Amino acid sequence: MDRRRGVDIVRRGMIAAAVLVAGVLTGCGADGSSGDAEPTAGTATGSPWHDEVAAATGSGPVGAGTPCPLPVTFQLADGWRAAPVEIPDDADDPELAAALAEALIRRGGATVRCEVDGRSVTPGFLRVYTTEGAPRPALEAFVDAGRQVTEPQYRQRRSGDLDVLEASWLSHRELLDENMREWALAVQVGGQTVLIGASSTSFGDPVEVLPAYRLARETLAATS
Prior knowledge:
Blueprint: H1 3-26, E1 37-38, E2 58-62, E3 72-77, E4 81-84, H2 94-104, E5 106-107, E6 110-117, E7 124-131, H3 135-144, E8 149-159, E9 162-173, E10 178-189, E11 192-200, H4 210-218, E12 221-222
Parallel strand pairs: 1-8
Antiparallel strand pairs: 2-3, 3-12, 4-6, 5-6, 6-7, 7-11, 8-9, 9-10, 10-11
Helix pairs in contact: 1-2
């Protein structure tokens, strides 16, 4: 095997691994369908929204002035940790860097900026993305960007001075061969749309991520 062929095989293997990891981390999918947005909602107990689940206790801010600079701020749940997500940069192999970036940090045209990891206390995490355009098409693209999504639903909420669009859907986890519920929100701030997605690990109860997600939604504010 010559050296060039060997490098190509390694590159393909790295890209395939990145795609697999991205699929396991997000556990998401799409069938191209999307529900109509509902009117501003009150309390909806049970699936899909589980409004009976209360917000967690805050332990500090995420956003401007923190390691994750964002167009918004929100409170971090106790025991959760936020860290910026860096875009892969390989000057020696820009094609590989672009493929890794697409697999690991982009979804439906949005780019992940910050990961809020709760896995030391809760089997789940939040990811914060930014993108251009209005919240509805941005959130629909985010939901539809994966594979095997079913039952997507949308609703409007209000958080302080911000109009928030929420989505909930079932995502098929190939590792366990079962569907698990996920949530996300979208809000427009300063010409950008910010999305916050909430996912459990494949071995966690999806509802366990909701207190941290609710805290983020209820304390969401624009940075300027």
